[in-house]
Amino acid sequence: MARTGGSSTGAGRRDALAALLALLALAGLLLARLPLACAADDRQAVVEMVEAAARALETYGFPRALEHGADGTWARPDAGLYIFVLDRLGTLLLHPDRRMEGRNIAGVRDADGKPFIRDIIVASVAHPGGVWTSYLWRSATSGQLGTKHTYAKAVGDMIVCAGYVAAEA
Prior knowledge:
Layout: H1 2-60, E1 75-76, E2 81-82, E3 84-87, E4 92-94, H2 116-126, E5 131-138, E6 145-155, E7 158-165
Antiparallel strand pairs: 1-2, 3-4, 3-7, 5-6, 6-7
């Protein structure tokens, strides 16, 4: 009889262990999806920024548009997000690092040698409603090399861009 009581205690322990393992598995699944949720938030924020900046540029022209727009239209430093504007030849018209403005960066390549600025220009002209491109880039916030996803939209002879570096899982 004592043995039967031991079995039910063993069964209780097995049930508790199974419940604990299920809880740990669920926690692992939730944590694994966290970078995807962050990427989705970044993706949405980038589109909102580019669309707001494009509206300001269409309404006021450049550079007057810089005086207009809600907070977060041109930069969200806390999220490492910022707008940059190119002309169709690859000259930077607007960049957070003002020393870069006026430079032609059409030939700049990513870590894989991909001419990503040219790709952004070609893709945005072909898809004026907005388009995503990807390339290897160093995160402004972490310094880590990762895949940068940039959303670009053609506005007249300008290309309005913003992007985020995806968290590497």
